[in-house]
């Protein structure tokens, strides 16, 4: 038995508090080191499965054992580090010995997953000042970090950090679980959002050593409401989806995605993790799904951040300029625009225009305006070459759009608790990474937008104050109308509005 190898991983899990408090540069080294050990172990298991002895990988593991004291020297007790180095070296000797027993494979795979989990924990832990640490029994959101990076990282840590609690002792008892996952986006395209399902599946597979495997439901993408229904009925266990539903009883779920003229990305992250009572099992948003009657739990899995206002073939200076435009736009933002006589693509006989056909619809004149996300994804779709000269901002209808991994409640309840923690942690880590990538790539792509404007090919314009004012007024009117006929919508709207007013005051100070 490779007790030495598992003992190293277990002891590192016991000191994750110290590892998580290391400075950013140190945590980067730790993350890389743990990932490399995990990969070395996975490669060793693969060699053993092929009936060979992983001598080369064993030598690499011995190098990691020698390097361990240098990596952990200032975050862990020196004597204990030496002990871990000795244990890892012993494990390397056993793995590289002739006639390595086949029963080592499961233990090596388990240890590989544990080192991957350690890398995840270290990677997502922010540097927090002691003054920002919450006191025990404190209520949520009374003390928040003052910058966006720390805030989002803290959100991820809330979930990621729980992996360490008890995982080491449970790893060898991990059952084999197989799930199916649907996605509303084709993973082969270059849109940033499309990455999320694959990232989540692969990370969960790695952390659990292949024991929790999630396969794509089918290659063909399906509509968001179809995904919700299939997950609700238990036909598939989970699905990556946006809240673009036609069923009127699902309108209240938009509070978990994006409300026109609503929350900023930073505020949205706080809202998604909000619990009315700190000891509640589910977040406020997750509770809404139960109250709607869905056997579904949503987990934030991706976010676009602030979006652009879309591409228009004609200038829209006044609110009356929207009159007669046919536009590709989903959600509540589309409903607001219908009040200014905009025709929506979802009213077409064949329904809403698929993402892959937006540019074609623009070029052929089927639509005169379209919104997608922002400069990076818009350029990937070719919207800047579809004949629309005017590129407007801001996307007031989707100021902080969230996309969820929706999970069947029964499937969730059947998972071991440590699988639940891993799933939740990976989703939230992916959420923060996708949001960060959008901010990074949109800012870079903005340079190309400005180049096109300088050359006279497009005009980058801000929506007028009149348009912002009137659309905000119509948004409030729309929300109040839904609240007047649906008690649940009214209750959630009241909670959301109170939250928005409170956190907006805090945002102003920041």
Outline the secondary-structure elements.
Layout: H1 3-14, H2 16-20, H3 24-49, H4 55-72, H5 78-95, H6 104-124, H7 148-160, H8 167-170, E1 177-183, H9 196-207, E2 212-216, H10 224-233, E3 238-241, H11 265-272, H12 284-292, E4 296-305, E5 310-312, E6 326-328, H13 331-338, E7 343-344, H14 358-363, E8 369-370, H15 375-381, E9 390-393, E10 401-408, H16 409-414, H17 417-454, E11 459-462, H18 465-485, H19 487-509
Parallel strand pairs: 1-2, 1-3, 6-7, 6-8, 9-11
Antiparallel strand pairs: 3-10, 4-10, 5-8, 5-9
Helix pairs in contact: 1-5, 1-6, 3-4, 3-6, 4-5, 7-17, 9-17, 13-18, 15-17, 18-19
Short description:
The chain is elongated. The chain has helices at 3-14, 16-20, 24-49, 55-72, 78-95, 104-124, 148-160, 167-170, 196-207, 224-233, 265-272, 284-292, 331-338, 358-363, 375-381, 409-414, 417-454, 465-485, 487-509; strands spanning 177-183, 212-216, 238-241, 296-305, 310-312, 326-328, 343-344, 369-370, 390-393, 401-408, 459-462.
């Amino acid at each position: 038995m490779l007790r030495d190898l598992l003992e190293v991983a277990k002891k590192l899990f016991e000191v994750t508090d110290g590892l998580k408090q290391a400075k950013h540069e140190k945590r980067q080294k730790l993350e890389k080191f743990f990932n490399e050990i995990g990969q070395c172990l996975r490669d060793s298991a693969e060699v053993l499965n092929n009936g060979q002895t992983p001598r080369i990988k064993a030598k690499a593991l011995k190098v990691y054992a020698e390097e361990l004291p240098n990596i952990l020297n200032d975050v862990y007790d020196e004597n204990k580090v030496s002990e871990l180095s000795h244990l890892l070296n012993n494990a390397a000797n056993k793995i590289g010995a002739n006639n390595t027993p086949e029963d080592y494979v499961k233990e090596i795979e388990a240890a590989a997953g544990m080192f991957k989990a350690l890398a995840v924990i270290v990677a997502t832990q922010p540097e927090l000042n002691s003054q920002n640490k919450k006191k025990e029994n404190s209520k949520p959101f009374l003390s928040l970090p003052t910058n966006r990076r720390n805030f989002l990282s803290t959100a991820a840590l809330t979930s990621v950090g729980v992996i360490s609690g008890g995982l080491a002792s449970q790893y060898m008892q991990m059952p084999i679980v197989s799930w199916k996952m649907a996605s509303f986006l084709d993973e082969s395209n270059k849109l940033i959002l499309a990455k999320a399902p694959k990232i989540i599946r692969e990370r969960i597979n790695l952390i659990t050593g292949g024991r929790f495997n999630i396969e794509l439901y089918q290659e063909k993408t399906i509509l968001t409401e179809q995904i919700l229904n299939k997950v609700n009925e238990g036909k598939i266990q989970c699905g990556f989806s946006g809240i673009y539903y036609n069923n009127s009883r699902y309108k209240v779920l938009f509070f978990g995605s994006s409300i026109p003229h609503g929350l900023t990305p930073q505020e949205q992250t706080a809202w998604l993790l909000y619990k009315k009572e700190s000891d509640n099992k589910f977040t406020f948003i997750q509770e809404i799904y139960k109250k709607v009657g869905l056997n579904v739990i949503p987990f934030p899995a991706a976010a676009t951040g602030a979006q652009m206002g879309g591409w228009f073939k004609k200038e829209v200076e006044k609110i009356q300029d929207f009159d007669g435009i046919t536009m590709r736009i989903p959600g509540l933002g589309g409903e607001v625009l219908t009040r200014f006589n905009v025709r929506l693509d979802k009213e077409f006989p064949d329904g809403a225009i698929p993402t892959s056909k937006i540019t074609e619809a623009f070029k052929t004149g089927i639509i005169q305006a379209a919104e997608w996300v922002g400069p990076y994804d818009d350029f990937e779709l070719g919207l800047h070459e579809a004949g629309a000269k005017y590129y407007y901002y801001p996307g007031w209808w989707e100021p902080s759009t969230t996309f969820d991994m929706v999970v069947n409640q029964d499937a969730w309840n059947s998972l071991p608790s440590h699988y639940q923690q891993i799933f939740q942690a990976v989703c939230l880590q992916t959420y923060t990474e996708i949001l960060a990538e959008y901010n990074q790539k949109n800012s870079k792509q903005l340079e190309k937008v400005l180049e096109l404007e300088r050359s006279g090919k497009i005009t980058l314009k801000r929506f007028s104050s009149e348009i912002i004012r009137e659309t905000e007024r119509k948004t409030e009117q729309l929300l109040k109308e839904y609240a007047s006929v649906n008690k649940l919508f009214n209750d959630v709207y009241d909670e959301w509005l109170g939250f928005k007013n409170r956190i907006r005051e805090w945002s102003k100070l920041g």
